[in-house]
C-alpha cells in the first residue's frame, strides 16, 4: 500500500468550465476517494421570486444556466401554469418541444467537444463546436438569441415559427446529420478515443438506482428513465419514441447515449414539425398564482424538478429548482473511486456537470 | 478498431475556407429576429414611463420633468419586455448589437414636446381621456394601472376624476377598463404642454431657494407618502388628505433615500 496523498482538483482547472472542488485522496496514481465541495457560484436566484413578479421571473430563471436556458424557462412556466391551472395552446407546446430539442442537440454537441478537449483531442473539439454553431444560428433565427432565448412566457410562447422557417430547420438539421455522423464515428470507433473511454468509470445499474442518477448518466447504466415519457410535459407522448439506452455503464456508454440522443432529437424535431397544428401561440394569463405545483422536465443533462408556490400575490412565495447535476454528483464520486488520476478530468466531464445550475 | 478516423474531416477542412469570420473586417450577419439593442422613436414617445416600470433589469429611466428617456446599455438584458408594453410602439428591438465599449454607457434621448393634435372642443379632461359615466362601475382598475397616478376613483362617492396635468394619454387605462367605458379621443395633449400653457408659474417649493437641506417641489408632489416610508429616520410626515408634506429637520440626516424613492422626482437635496 502506497502513501496516501490529497490532491486538490478545482475550482479552477483547465478542464472545468465551472467551479467545483474535489479533494482527491490518491494512492500512487489511483484515486481512493474523492470529496466534492460546491458553493463557489451561489447567486441566490430562488430567493429573487420574492422580489420579482412571477411574469418577470422567467427572465431570471432562464439565466440560471446558459446551456439549458430554454429548459429552465419552460420548467418554471409549466410549474406556474400548473399552479394557476392554465392550459396553453397546443401549438405553443409543439414550439416549446422543438426549441427544447434544439437546445438538447447543441448541448450534447458542446459536451462532445468538451469531452474531446478533456482527453486531449483538440481538433475534434473544434469540429464539434463548428457543427454546433449551425444549430445556434437556427436558434437565433427563430428566437432572437443565441444562448438566452426569452421566448417562453407564462401562458405560451412569445414568438412563432412560420412554415418556411420550420422547413429550413428540418432541412438544415437533416443536412447536419452527415457531418455529425463523421464526428461521432471518431468518438465511437477511433482506437485512441476508445482506449480512453472503454471501461473507465463503470457505474452499474444497481449503483445508478441507489445513487439517484438521472439523465444520460442513468440511461448509460441501463436504466430506462426519461422524463419526456414519464411526465406529461410537451407533446412527447404523440411523438412515439424510445429512450436511448446503453448497458455498459462506462464513459464510452455515456458518450454513445448522448450521440444517440442527438440523432433522436433531430428525428423528434422532424416529427413535431410535420405534426404541428395551426392556432394561437399563447393565452392571456390573468390574476395571481395561488396554490402549488411540481413539474419535471428532461433537460439535456437529465431530470430537472421545478416547484412553484404562490399565495395569491403577484410574487411567488417559494420556487425550487433541483437540477440534474445535483443528482449526478454522488455517482461521480462513486465512479472516481479506483480510477487513474489521469482519468479524473474526463470522468468529471462525463456527468456533464453544470455547477451554475446546481447552485443557482 | 479504426485508427485516425478524423483524417477525412481534417483533410476536407484543409481545403475549405475557415469556419470563422475575420471580424470586424467581415461584418457579422444579423438575423431578422436578433435581439441586439433597444431603439426609440423620440417623436412618438409620450414619456409615460411604463417601459421603465416593467423593465426587469431596471435599465430604463424616464424623467418626465426633463423629458428624457435613458437606457443603461450594460444593464439591459434584451428581453424585449419594454417593446411589448410600450403603448405608443415607439420602442423597437434593433437587430444589431451596440458597439463594444470599455465603460458602462447610459444613452439618454431627449424627447421633443409633442404638438397639440386637436383642441377637440370637449370639456373632457386630460388629453382627451373621457369616461362614459353611465357604464362606469368605479372599480378603480384604471387608477391602479395608470403609470402617472393621474386618475382618482372613489367607489363610495361615485367619483371618477382625471388630473389633466398628470395624464400623458398613454391609453393604459383604456385597455384595462373591464367595462370599456374609457376612450382616448380628444387628441393627444402631453402633460408638459399643458403645464406650459397654464403660464409659467413658479413651482412652489416647501422652502425657499438658498437654504441647504431637503426640499419638496409641492406643485408636483402627489403626497403618495413613499418618501416617508423610505426615510430611515422617520423625518417625514405626509398627509394625503390634507395635502401636507412636513419635514422634521432635526431628524433628517440628508441621506437622500427619499429623493431616489420619489416617483414624481419632486424632491431635491440642496
Poorly predicted runs of chain B are 116-126, 187-201
CATH classification class of chain A: Mainly Alpha
What portion of residues of chain A belong to β-strands?
Answer: 5-15%
**Count of separate DSSP helical elements of chain B:** 8
The overall number of domains of chain A is: 1
What is the second-level CATH architecture of the largest domain in chain B?
A: 2-Layer Sandwich
Shape of chain A: globular
Radius of gyration of chain B: 26 Å
Oligomer: heterodimer
Enumerate how many helices of chain A there are, as a single number: 13
Helix-strand string of chain B:
HEHEEHEEEHEEHEHEHEEHE
Give a brief outline of the structure:
The complex is a heterodimer of chains A (360) and B (270). Chain A is an alpha+beta fold and 360 residues long.
Fill in the keyword field for this structure.
heterodimer; A: about 350 residues; alpha+beta; Cytochrome-c3 Hydrogenase, chain B; three-stranded antiparallel beta sheet; 13 helices; about 15% strand; B: about 270 residues; Alpha-Beta Plaits; 3 domains; two-stranded antiparallel sheet
Amino acid at each position: 500500500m502506497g502513501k496516501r496523498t490529497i490532491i486538490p482538483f478545482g475550482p479552477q482547472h483547465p478542464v472545468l468550465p465551472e467551479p467545483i472542488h474535489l479533494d482527491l485522496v490518491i494512492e500512487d496514481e489511483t484515486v481512493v476517494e474523492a470529496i466534492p465541495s460546491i458553493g463557489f457560484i451561489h447567486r441566490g436566484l430562488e430567493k429573487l421570486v420574492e422580489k420579482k413578479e412571477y411574469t418577470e421571473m422567467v427572465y431570471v430563471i432562464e439565466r440560471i444556466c446558459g446551456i439549458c436556458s430554454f429548459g429552465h424557462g419552460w420548467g418554471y412556466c409549466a410549474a406556474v401554469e400548473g399552479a394557476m391551472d392554465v392550459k396553453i395552446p397546443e401549438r405553443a407546446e409543439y414550439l416549446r418541444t422543438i426549441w427544447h430539442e434544439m437546445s438538447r442537440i447543441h448541448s450534447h454537441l458542446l459536451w462532445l467537444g468538451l469531452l474531446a478537449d478533456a482527453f486531449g483531442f483538440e481538433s475534434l473539439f473544434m469540429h464539434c463546436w463548428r457543427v454546433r454553431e449551425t444549430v445556434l444560428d437556427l436558434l437565433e433565427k427563430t428566437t432572437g438569441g443565441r444562448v438566452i432565448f426569452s421566448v417562453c412566457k407564462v401562458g405560451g410562447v412569445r414568438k412563432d415559427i412560420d412554415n418556411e422557417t420550420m422547413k429550413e430547420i428540418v432541412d438544415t438539421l437533416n443536412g447536419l446529420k452527415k457531418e455529425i455522423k463523421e464526428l461521432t464515428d471518431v468518438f465511437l470507433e477511433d482506437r485512441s478515443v476508445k482506449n480512453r473511454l472503454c471501461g473507465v468509470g463503470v457505474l452499474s445499474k444497481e449503483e445508478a438506482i441507489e445513487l439517484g442518477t438521472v439523465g444520460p448518466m442513468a440511461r448509460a447504466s441501463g436504466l430506462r428513465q426519461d422524463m419526456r415519457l414519464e411526465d406529461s410535459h410537451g407533446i412527447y407522448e404523440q411523438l412515439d419514441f424510445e429512450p436511448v439506452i446503453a448497458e455498459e455503464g462506462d464513459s464510452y456508454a455515456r458518450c454513445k447515449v448522448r450521440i444517440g440522443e442527438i440523432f433522436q432529437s433531430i428525428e423528434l424535431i422532424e416529427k413535431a414539425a410535420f405534426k404541428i397544428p395551426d392556432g394561437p401561440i399563447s393565452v392571456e394569463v390573468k390574476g395571481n398564482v395561488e396554490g402549488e405545483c411540481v413539474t419535471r422536465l428532461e433537460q439535456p443533462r437529465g431530470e430537472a424538478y421545478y416547484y412553484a408556490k404562490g399565495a395569491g400575490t403577484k410574487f411567488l412565495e417559494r420556487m425550487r429548482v433541483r437540477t440534474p447535476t445535483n443528482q449526478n454528483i454522488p455517482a461521480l464520486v462513486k465512479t472516481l473511486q479506483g480510477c487513474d488520476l489521469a482519468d479524473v478530468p474526463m470522468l468529471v466531464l462525463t456527468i456533464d456537470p453544470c455547477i451554475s445550475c446546481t447552485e443557482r | 478498431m479504426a485508427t485516425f478516423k478524423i483524417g477525412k474531416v481534417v483533410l476536407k477542412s484543409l481545403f475549405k475556407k475557415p469556419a470563422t469570420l475575420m471580424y470586424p473586417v467581415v461584418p457579422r450577419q444579423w438575423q431578422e429576429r436578433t435581439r441586439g439593442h433597444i431603439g426609440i422613436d423620440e417623436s412618438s414617445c409620450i414619456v409615460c414611463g411604463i417601459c421603465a416600470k416593467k423593465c426587469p433589469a431596471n435599465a430604463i429611466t424616464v424623467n418626465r420633468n426633463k423629458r428624457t428617456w435613458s437606457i443603461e446599455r450594460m444593464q439591459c438584458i434584451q428581453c424585449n419586455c419594454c417593446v411589448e408594453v410600450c403603448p405608443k410602439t415607439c420602442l423597437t428591438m434593433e437587430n444589431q448589437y451596440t458597439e463594444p465599449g470599455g465603460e458602462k454607457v447610459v444613452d439618454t434621448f431627449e424627447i421633443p414636446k409633442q404638438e397639440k393634435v386637436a383642441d377637440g372642443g370637449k370639456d373632457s379632461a386630460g388629453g382627451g381621456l373621457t369616461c362614459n359615466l353611465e357604464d362606469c362601475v368605479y372599480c378603480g382598475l384604471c387608477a391602479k394601472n395608470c403609470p402617472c397616478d393621474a386618475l382618482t376613483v372613489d367607489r363610495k362617492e361615485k367619483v371618477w376624476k382625471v388630473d389633466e396635468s398628470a395624464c400623458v394619454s398613454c391609453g393604459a387605462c383604456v385597455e384595462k377598463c373591464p367595462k370599456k367605458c374609457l376612450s382616448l379621443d380628444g387628441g393627444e395633449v402631453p402633460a408638459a404642454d399643458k403645464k406650459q400653457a397654464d403660464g409659467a408659474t413658479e413651482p412652489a417649493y416647501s422652502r425657499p431657494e438658498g437654504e441647504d437641506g431637503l426640499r419638496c417641489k409641492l406643485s408636483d408632489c402627489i403626497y403618495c407618502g413613499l418618501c416617508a416610508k423610505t426615510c430611515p429616520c422617520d423625518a417625514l410626515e405626509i398627509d394625503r388628505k390634507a395635502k401636507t408634506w412636513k419635514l422634521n429637520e432635526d431628524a433628517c440626516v440628508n441621506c437622500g433615500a427619499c429623493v431616489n424613492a420619489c416617483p414624481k422626482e419632486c424632491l431635491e437635496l440642496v
